[in-house]
Amino acid sequence: xxxxxxxxxxxxxxxxxxxxxxxxxxxxxxxxxxxxxxxxxxxxxxxxxxxxxxxxxxxxxxxxxxxxxxxxxxxxxxxxxxxxxxxxxxxxxxxxxxxxxxxxxxxxxxxxxxxxxxxxxxxxxxxxxxxxxxxxxxxxxxxxxxxxxxxxxxxxxxxxxxxxxxxxxxxxxxxxxxxxxxxx
Length: 184
Description:
Number of domains: 2
Radius of gyration: 25 Å
Number of strands: 7
Order of helices and strands: EEHEEEHEEHH
CATH architecture of the largest domain: Orthogonal Bundle
């Protein structure tokens, strides 16, 4: 039995959206590859590139997903990097920002008093405030938390800087998403 492709074309999963002369233009993969070959010849410094054995492809700034399978929700990893990002490298007692190397992690309720190592009980603290607090609760040490610790819903280390010219084409889409996204 000979297996053949269906006569129907497969639906694309994604397309490239490019900003050209102030207009948004959509490309399928084949058209984008062809345009990339042209751009690689005439304006290679204007783009970042993915190189394969056979061709170079301009890295698109915007990819619009047309269809997708729902992925399972991933838990945010409980690690130092994510805690520092959640607290924006700010001591949660004095409110000052510090380099990561000048911060420590503090158990709000000390382990000696039954405190757990979890999102809701760990905060960033500068060395001075952490020493001042010692093995006491903030109330016992006469300190106040700037923000109650919480478990983030999304990875706090992911951030984009729209001021970078490379991402300026995203701005319109992110602005629309900010206003149109359903709040929960």
